[in-house]
Amino acid sequence: MDKFMIEGGAKLYGTVKAQSAKNSVLPLLAASILTDKKVVIRETPAISDVVCMAQILRELGAEVSFRGEDIVIESARASCHKLSSALTKELRSSVFMLGSLLTRFHRAVISYPGGCDIGLRPIDLHLNALKRLGVSITEREGYILCQCDKLHGADISLDFPSVGATENVMLAAVMAEGTTCLTGAAKEPEIVDLQKFLNRMGAKVAGAGTDVITVEGVKELGSVTYKIGRASCRERVLRLV
What we know:
Number of helices: 8
Strand content: 15-25%
Structural class: alpha+beta
Shape: globular
Number of strands: 13
Largest sheet: 4 strands, mixed
Order of helices and strands: EHEHEEHHEHEEEHEHEEEHE
């Protein structure tokens, strides 16, 4: 479609319920792989990005099912740490999986989102932050290869308040040894949602919504049923008058 023709002047009326925010759902799906217990995310938006992220989890070995508006993830049998290049290039947000995979398996292999080369895109913020947590990163034939013997807490400062890099640090630090202090963090509502989600799993994360986030590593995370917060999904009913 080349253009929209809109004729104004008519009074608007009725009610509309806004969908949950995609920007909150995707990192929560990435976080679901952190535990081998059941995870339920309530009232998720029925969009292609969510379906794609669900497929990524399935390729890692997780069981994912859609039950009405809810998504149920059980990743006890997850064993794969490599993301297919096809899905990575289809969904740029797949880069969120780096932190989760490193926490779960201590290794991760992912192609560059969109096929970009190292040093030419903001993903460097993610990689540099992960290196501070003890991750060794190399490049081979268009793939990023990440591995570590263990993750350890660190003081990390982001040059830019990247939402994705902030989320990756949270996901990688949540079960690292020691405490991580992230300064220059993004403050968006989806960061707050991720903190709440992780804490309900048993994590110790504080400061989301400010530019300083602290993560105290824990030994394990458990089951969670979570509905995205009002601050990010604006689930209140909108009245058009």
